[in-house]
Structure formats: C-alpha cells, structure tokens
Amino acid sequence: METAFFRMSGVSKSYGGALALERADLAVRRGRIHAILGENGAGKSTLLKVMSGVVQPDAGTMHLDGREVAFASPADANAAGIVCVYQELSLVPDLSVADNIFASNPPTRFGMIDRRAQRRQAAAALARAGAPDIDPLAKVRDLPLSRQQMVELAKGLAREPRILILDEATSALTAADVARVIDVLRRLRDEGLAILFISHRMHEVKALADECTVYRNGRHVTSFAAGTRSDTEVIEMMIGRTYQHAFPAKPARRLPAEPVLACRDLAWNDVLRGISFALKPGEILGLGGLDGQGQRELLLALFGVLRGCAGHIDIDGKAVSIASPAAARGARIGMALIPEDRKTEGLMLPMSVRENLSFAALDRMSAAGVIDRGRQQSCVDRMMELLAIKSAGVDVPVGSLSGGNQQKVVIAKWLIRQPRILLLSDPTRGIDVGTKQEIYQLLRRLADEGAAIVFHSTDYDELIGCCDRVLVLYEGRIKRELVGKEITEQNLIASALDLPVGQVSPSTGVAT
Amino acid sequence: MSDVSARSRPTFVARLTRRIDRPLVIAFACIVALLLVGGMFSRSFTSPEYILLQLKVGAFLGIIATGLMMVILLGHIDLSLPWTITAGAMMACAVAGHGEFGRVAAIPAGIGCGVLIGVVNGVLVAFLRIPSMIATLATNAVAQGIMIVYTGGSSPQDSAPEAMRWLAAGWLMPGVPNAVVLWVVIGGATMFVLSRTTFGRTLYAIGNTERAAYLSGINTRAVTVAAFAVCSAFAAFGGVLLAGYASKAAQSMGDAYLLPAIAAVVLGGTSILGGRGSYLGTVAGAILITLLQSILSVAQMPEAGRQIIYGVVIAAMLLLYGRGKREG
Amino acid sequence: MNGLRYWYTENRGTIAAFGLFVLMFAIYLANYPSAISANVILTAANKAVLLALVAMAQALVVLTAGIDLSVGMMLVLTNCLASWLVAGDALHTALGIIGVLAAGALCGALNGVIIIYGRLQPIVTTIATGAVFYGLALLLRPVPGGAINDDLGDALTGKVAGVVPASLLILLAAVLIVWIPFQRSAIGRAAYAAGSSEPAAFLSGMPIRRAKFASYTAAGLLAALGGLFLTFFTDTGEASLGSANSYTLFSIAAVVIGGVSLLGGKGSAIGAIFGAFAFRSIGDLLFVFNVDALWQPLFQGVILLLAVTIGACGLFRVRNRLEWFE
Fold first, then answer.
1. A112:C319 CB<8 A
2. pTM as predicted
3. Which of B148, B314, B319 sits opposite C297 (nearest CB)?
4. Interface pTM (ipTM) of the complex?
5. What is the pLDDT of residues A466-510, one digit of tens each?
C-alpha cells in the first residue's frame, strides 16, 4: 500500500475547556477514498477544520509531502492543495454561480475581474462536477439546495485540489445527484485525487469508501480497509459499547376509531399538491420519499406557518383553521413541531438551558404574565430527568451542549405542554447513535401514552424501525402508503422513485 | 459533565450576582473614577447636593434610555427618539392650554403621542419587516415635518402646566427630587418585567433568534409592536418632564438626547445586536453619560472639545467590552 | 439574451430609481414658471450632485451590511477644512484639494479600522466618530467664515461648454474613478459578499477585511469630495450640526430609494445617485407647485416613509412565514 503523503499526528484542540480533539491522528493516501466515521462530538468536524485551516490546533503537527505545515486560514490550506466542501455552504447568496466558484483568485484583467473568462471556466468546473446544466450566471440564492451543493462541489474542484474533503456534503442532495456525485468522486479517485469524507449514511460509506477511520471522544480509534468490518462492529467502535436493537418493538394494538388529525386535499404553492391522510392517537406515521418532495412543507402547513394553503384540516373530526404556531400549540389543537434546524429554529443558543426548556410553555408557568419560578423549576427538573439531558447545570447556555442533548432540549421544551399531536422534521439528523436510540424509545413511549406522531425522516432504517405506517411523498403528493410489514427498504426506495414496487434490485439500488 | 439538573436552588446572593458581568463593573468603576476626577476640579463634586442634582438631570435621560433598552434588546433600534420627545412635550403643552380639561389631559396626551408613534414604528418593523433603522428614521422625519407645520417653524408659545413642572422639578419626598422618584419607580418596574415576566423573557428570545421564538408559538409581532410602543411612550414622557423642567417645550429639544440614550444603553453592556443586557447597566450608563456631560461643562470645555471627548469616550469604552467575535 | 435578463434582475433597483427621478424632474421642468434655461438645470444639478456624492459614500458602506452615520459630519469637517486650505495660487489650491481629500479618506479609514480591527458595530462606531469629526469641524470654524479660490469655485459650479454643468462632470469622474473600478474588482466583489453572507465569504477565503476597509475609506473620500464641492458652492466653511444630520439622513434616504438593500449585498452606487437626485427633486417640486417651504420636511419624511414601505410590499407575496425571519 502506498505511503501517506499527508499525516496529522497528536493533534489536540479544545473549545473553552471542552476537549474536541485529543492527540488525534490521520493518514491520507493518494487515489483513495477515505471515510471518517464517528458520533457527533467525536471530533470529526474539528479534525477537518484543523486540516483545512479554519481553526488552529492547540497541539500536534501536520506533515505534507514529508514537510511540516501549518495553515493559518482556509486560504493557506487551499494554497497547499487541501480543499473542503462544506455542509454549511460557503456560497454567497447574492453573487452568481461563477462568482462563487471563483470567489478567491478570479481571473483578472487590468486589475478588474474578467467576467467572460470566469464564466467559461465556471462552466468547465460545473461540468467536471457532474452538473453541466447549472447556468454560471444564475444567482445562488435562486437555486434549490441540492443544486447549491453541486455548485459547492464544483467550487472545490475548481481549485485543483490534491486532497478533497467532503464534510457531510451529500446531506442535501437528491438521490439522483448523489448517484452523479458518487460517479464523479470515483472518477477523481482514479485520477489520483485523495478524498476524505464524513457521512452518517452507512450506505454511502459502503458504496464509496476504500478505507475507513473511526474516531471516538476526540481520539483515533482504528483504521481499516472498507468491507472488512460489519456494520454492527463499526457502530460499536463509534459508540464504545455493545450495540443492541436499534428500535423498540412495535406493539400490536387496536387503535381508537376516531382520527385526531385528518387532512383533505391539502395544497400549497405547487409544492403540496393535494395531500389527504388521517392520523389516530397512538400511531407513529412516517413521511418518506426523496428530499424536497414536500415533507418539510407538509409539517409547516399543519403547524400554521404557511400562508395560502388550500384544503381542509380536521382536528377530532371538526374543521379548524390554523393560522400560526401560537394557534397550533393551543389547548384546542395541542400540536407541537420539532423543527428541522435546531440551531436556528429550535433553540436560542446563548440563552440558558432553563430558559430554552420553559420557553414554549411560559403561558402555563405564569399568572397574568408573571413567571412562577417554582412551577418553572419543577417543569425544568422533570424534563431534565425524563429525557436524561446531560448538562453542566440548567443555567449554562444551551449552545454549550452537544448536538444530541440540544435536540433533547428542543423535544423536552414541547413535551412540557403534553401535546396530542407531535410533528418531527428529521429530528435525528446529525445526532449520535446513542441519543438516536433514546429518541426512538421516547417516541414509542409517547405513542403508547396516546400521542399521535408524524415523523419525517431521511433515514430509511428509522422509517422501517419506528413507524406503524409510512406515507411516501413524491412531487407533493402521496405516492404510496405502506403499512406494517410492507415497510421495507425496497418498497420505500421504489415508491420514492415513483417505480412500481418490486422493480428495484437491491444491489444496484440508489444510495441513500 | 455533571448529570441531570441543578436540584439545589441557587442562593439569593448567587442569583443576584449571576447576571453581573464585566460591562456593569466597568461602568460603575468609571462613575466612581469620574467623581474623583471631578473632585479635583472642585470640592463640591463629591457633595450629596451635587450628586442628587446629577441624578435628577440623569433621570430624564434614564427614563428615555429605559424605553430604548427594550427595543435594543429585540435587536432593533429607535432613531425616532428626538422628535418623539419633542412631539410629546409640545402636544402636552398645547393640550394644557385648553382650560380645566386640558390641564388634566395634558400629560396623558403627550404620552399618547408617543404611543401612537411607537405603534407606527412597531407595525413598520414587525409587520412590514422594514429594518428598524430606516423605519424609525422615516417616522422621525415625518414627526418633525408635522411639528414644523404645526408650530409654523418657530418656537411653540404654550408653556408647561403646573403638573408637569411639579413632576419634573418638585419634591414629593423631602430630599429626593420627583424626577428621581419617577426614575426609580419606572426602573424598578422595568427590572421586574425584564426578569420575571413572559414579556421580558420574550424580548430576550426575539433578540436572540426570532425564528425559534416564532416556532415556539410566541406572537413575536405583537411583542415587537408593544416594545416599540413602550419605548416611544417613555420617550414622550421624558419630553413631558423636560418641558416641565424648562417650563416650556422648544424646537429640536429632543435632538440632544438620541446619542446619549444610545450610548447609555450600550455602555451599560446591552448588546446592540440584541438578546443580552441587564437593566442595571442602563442605569449605570445613564449616570455615566450625565456625569461626563456635567464635568465637561463645569470644566468650561467648549462645545468642540466636548463632542470630541464624548466620541472618544464612547469608542474607548466599547472597545473595552463591546467587541464582536473573532472569525473562526 | 440570457445575460441581459440577469443584468436586468440584478439592476432592477437602480433602473426603478432612474425612472422615478426622470419622472419627477420632468414634472418639475414641465411646471417651471418661466422659460427653462441652462441655468435652471445648473442650479438643480449643483444641489443634486452634493447629495449624490454623500449618497455614493453611504452606498459603499451599506453594501457591506454596515452603515455610516458620520458621513454628514465628514462632509462638514472637510467643508471647514477646505475653507482654510483651498485658497491662494494654483499650487496651494491643488495641494489644498489633495489635503482635503486625504483628510476625508483618513476619517473613513478611522471608521474602518475601529469597525474591522476593534470589531465594534458600525452603528455605534460611526455615532462616536461622527461626534469627534463634528468637534474637529467646530475647532476649525467656531463661526462660519473662510473663503475659497474664487476662480476655481466659479468654474466648478458653472457650466462647461456653456451647457453641461461642471458638477455633473465631477460626479461622472467620481463614478468612473472610484465606483466602477471598485465594483469590478475582487475587492468590490468581496464587499458585496461581506454584506450578503460574511461567514460564507470568510470560508471562501475572500478578502473581507480589505474590502470593508476599502469601502469605509472610499466613503470618506467621496464625502470629502462632497465637502469640497459644498465649499465651492457656498464659498464658506460652516460647522452646522443641523446640516450634518440632514446630509446623513438624506444619504440614507437616497440609498434606500436607489434600491440598495440596507441588509447588504445588493444594489449599486449608481442607484444611490439617482435616489439622491429623486429625493432632491422633492423640494423643487414643492416650489414649483407653490407649496409653502414649511411643508418640505413633512413631504420629505412622507416620501421616505413611502419609499421604504413600497420596498416592503414584496412581503405580501411571501407564503412561508419563516421567510420573515431571514
């Protein structure tokens, strides 16, 4: 095996007392696709940030071609040939695609940017990234998220990297784009590029990686060639303990006859095109399908965030009109929404854990607008215990908690209201395996206690393991409803791609 | 990391000192320093009479800054203070001239003016999503235009009624000027609202992440309008008091209060971006600015020098503790 | 054709401001009480160019998602400075002009340094520096006075070739020498990027700090050009607080009317110029329709209010309420 041309040794980094990386190592070889695995908080993102110059390590060394190097900024790392394609996009929304691809080092003439040359070169970069249909003059703001991610990839490739880093870069892609990116990456690998990528999607890892490295608690655990360890072994390495069933058992139980939530011909803005379904108390209903088929919008519509919805929503058999989240969470309806992005939609990061936990139920903890501190404290204590939220006290800023615990705070915040209908928009995205399991157990318990749950997930395993029924959405309509034993990976993929069930062979199924 | 919640109730002292942060300490330290420096110019600087006088003058600024703080906590700003102050003063004096009913209705009329301006500001910002800086600049210009037309361009002739004069310059309690009492009452109420009510908690939340507050089921728009209304009401009330102090309203009387009010709030540790700040800081900031202005005038500094020192002091103090995050 | 469509979408605000100005000026000319002569255009141009220069300065800063509340003070300061320096023979006059422009650039650079390296918010920084600049202006001219090179003054506030106001040529020069190179360079693009999304611009390795510094310094330079021109126009130096505040307020109004987004990343200084022209025309229109000058501030305020409200009307098409909180 070829020797590594880039090495990191003993790299440590801490953020305000919390150790993110502890003497971590990494070896990168040319012409190999290297997957970096680990739970959230394991240090993967920090490792790559050190590598790409976004942050500076507290200790440790990096060697490129045998020489020691240090990167003071992303520009330095780029100059050395290390390019990172981010999950949080580095695209400037109000600039064009071409401007973004050549954000640094654009072609110039007489000191000013040569727009024509830039456009030409941008088109070439886009073609190389497998997205020749994107117009270089289009404004990034006007492109859908999946196209933006492809622009991000083109931008990385335009820098002629020696090492390409993909930090969860496929999470926003449609399945078709994922297939294209896999082809592109394989081609680049064959041309000699070294590729590092982080992904939580085991299917992708299996399809792409040549070798894998697992990190846990900021330390390097082990590296191995792809395919030499089973999924269970890998997950055990990531979480550090034996891996039991992921999902709680689904009870065989009779549900009450009356649905608590019923939807008829719900339509909005050409994104939702006539959705009808009914939800009974005690049920966990999954929303599946490819990304961007309207799942997110359906939940927002139910919660009163979207304006101009056509169609009917019935609660307990009576028609209601939900005009805002304030109305949706009210006693008559009793809905709660766990939003997609916990950092910007679910939490106020600088505020304390206590303040965040109590925020959605302040009206129940106060009399005439004055907060009853005793009631607030008891609610907060109860939730911290119920969800086993790990925190250095309730007065620390919630931003200092790990991703999994942050998500628990978001869920706890709503559970104080004891909602009848719980909507979850991809709640386990970017969360470590241990917390995911706790969330699955919690959802099943809530359903047993009579809550009706709508659970949107991009992870097929979750839909199969957690849900009693799954609605697969395609282009804003319900393509198929899968019940009980029908919920299998084959059926989910087939419905998502609008194929008749039974026409997808597992070995060539699209990576998800 | 320790597990689960903090089951023990924090002690009273711990709760009080929990919120004390660096800017507050620095602001109070500067106040003490200024008093000592002033004492070098003249012995009377550290006398109780002088300090009480400063508190009285500072009360006007303090009340105006109190309202502004709520808007700044939201992450917005109110640049319509100058003409809200003036309009409140002028309207109060004008209404007072209308006989018996007028004398009773004068002060509420002035405050009502403020509420009206504040509601307009709030609607522009919360419902039309116009950036608060430009929305309040516009309402300020409109208020100015209306007042200029109303007074015909010259100084208003109405003088302040008895009630206003008493509120501003009278003595309800022996030894404590009324204006100071008003400031203490308003300030105390504000502290309570900010720390113990849902409205106060919501102000901080909106200033942090309005999206999350909205998705938690809070009516963020109504709270924003209310905050702007309160801000302008306090500003108009400040104008009423100022008119009472000077016995009449004057053209452009509010102009001199915008910068000091912003400075008072910001020097007290409230972040201009919103979501952070304690009321005690605003109190300290108001006293600090008042002392600074007073010392500069006693030292017979010409206007030019005063402006320069003013600007330098604000910049210097902000550099001490008002800085943003370093990238990465 | 595609390229044209993108150009149109990108410059919509500027085109709208241009249209508004043309409309207002046409109404003004149509209702002018006596015959329209080149002198009418001259007076209008001189007053408009003054505001346009300050508006350009403000636009440069606003693009980076900042704001400069000290532009009016910089204008007044350079006005007072010019009333001392720009006099005497050709050499002294030239040196004086360079000195004044340099002073303006220095003021802008001070703003930039405090904001970038001190990491203070632009709004409070420029309030503080504005006070300092005004104090300096008062030091220079406690009472109005001074003089300026008369010949040069007449030439620059007069007409070239009997028709074209020299002030418009100065404005054109400012656009060609300062704005166009700025906008088309990598630095200018980084300024737009800083206003659009600073984290993204940083991750992309764009020279954000240099771009912001260039914006603030160039703003100071343009404000100084305005102050210089004001001195030529009024033949005196005056440290008027009311005047300074007005110019600051009007520069923001002009920028908004000109389609530059206060949130940064969108718009053009040329739009701000037309916004300034349009805003100035309000006073002219009131005069032409025999409205008492007393009403002018109210009209200006109402127009400003309408301009910002109209800009917000796009909100009614928003169907996902989460977009309110971007």
1. no
2. 0.83
3. B148
4. 0.84
5. 899 999 988 888 988 998 888 887 777 777 766 665 544 443 333
